[in-house]
Design a protein that fits this description.
The protein has 334 residues and is α/β, with parallel strands linked by helices. It is 39% helix and 15% strand. Strands 1-7-6-2-3 form a five-stranded parallel β-sheet, sandwiched between helices. The structure holds phosphoric acid mono(formamide)ester.
Length: 334
């Protein structure tokens, strides 16, 4: 495997195969599989899980990592193609990425959305420009429009919980004081559709996922036998749900307009997941969130601390799923 940029680049069988390897590595550790291998991690944005799980994953497989957080001890990196570099950034990723790649066996990059131009963010232009200049295996640690590592870990979590393929997964928008990127909801709706689930995207008016995102998920559902719907009606969406996956994201009807976004979301503070959200759900409905999460803003304490919540095993699976990606990418003979 040379690139791990989008689950859509793989067949359903290839993803299932990766998850078999993840489970195998969990049961039969291979502490020398990546001996002498070095993964470079470039974080243009903050992280807890992605940073820690990749570092630990490499170590558990016998390899090592270097971590670059541009502007914090290293030069600030310019990502915009064609930029006139008369600002804070001293180095462009067109030099920085290939230089780092020359020191390492693989690179991972996190580069969030600008949140200004929806078309540019959906096209992942800045991330794509970095992938283009890297001649080593390359991993998406969360780009403007995708988070394949999260999606792979979430698929494994659903499998671990023995959630049937045709179960109903509701991906619900939840409140956050400011606009957050579309990467996780886009990755999750596609992953669940690709897994073969009946997916409902629940979101208030103004926060519909972009048509390209929905079309990609519907195409995956068509191939897997699943389905994808969307609604703003909480009662209809949550009825019979087997999984409620909560996520915050920005207004899409006025993308990049922070004032319009703030006005719209000001009336939506009730979109905080509380125990009552599960009244009409399946009795054993699970609660998922990729984390980090704002307690009692996006999700109530009672839900996060209650028996439905699987957010901690979900976060743990970032490690197990990514170890399979690293093994496939870097182990000799893989
Ligand atoms: N879910 C996730 O990617 O977490 P971090 O932002 O902490 O890496």
């Amino acid at each position: 495997m040379l690139r791990f940029l989008d689950l859509a680049h793989f067949t359903r069988e290839e993803v299932v195969d990766l998850l078999v390897l993840a489970r195998d590595l969990q049961q039969r550790p291979q502490p020398r599989a990546l001996e002498g291998r070095i993964l470079g991690l470039v974080f243009l944005n903050p992280s807890l899980r992605t940073l820690a799980s990749f570092q630990v994953g490499m170590r558990r497989l016998g390899g090592d990592t270097i971590v670059i957080t541009p502007g914090q001890g290293t030069w600030q990196l310019e990502t915009r193609p064609g930029a006139i570099m008369n600002g804070a950034a001293a180095e462009h990723v067109r030099e920085g990425i290939p230089v780092l790649a020359s020191y390492c066996d693989a690179l991972g990059v996190r580069a969030f959305a600008d949140g200004k131009d929806l078309a540019a963010d959906l096209a992942d232009i800045q991330f794509g420009a970095m992938a283009e200049v890297c001649d080593k295996p390359f991993i998406n640690l969360e780009s403007a429009s995708n988070h394949p590592c999260q999606a792979l870990a979430d698929w494994k979590t659903l499998d671990d919980l023995r959630v049937p393929m045709r179960a109903k997964l509701v991906l619900s928008w939840v409140y956050h004081p400011r606009a957050l990127p579309l990467a996780v909801p886009s990755a999750v709706v596609h992953m669940a559709a690709m897994r073969g689930m009946d997916v409902t995207v629940l979101r208030p008016e103004g926060f519909a996922l972009p048509p390209q995102v929905m079309q990609k998920a519907r195409a995956a559902a068509q191939r897997s036998g699943g389905s994808v719907e969307e609604t703003s009606d909480q009662e209809t969406a949550l009825r019979g749900a087997h999984v409620l996956y909560a996520k915050e994201w920005g207004c899409t009807s006025r993308y990049g307009d922070s004032e319009a976004d703030a006005l719209l979301r000001a009336g939506l503070v009730e979109w905080c997941v509380r125990p009552g959200w599960f009244d009409a759900a399946a009795p054993d409905c699970h609660f998922m969130h990729c984390l980090p999460v704002r307690r009692n803003v996006a999700v109530a304490d009672e839900v996060l601390d209650g028996p439905r919540s699987v957010v901690k095993p979900q976060a743990f699976n970032r490690l197990t799923a990514q170890m399979a990606v690293l093994h496939r990418m870097l182990a000799k003979g893989s």
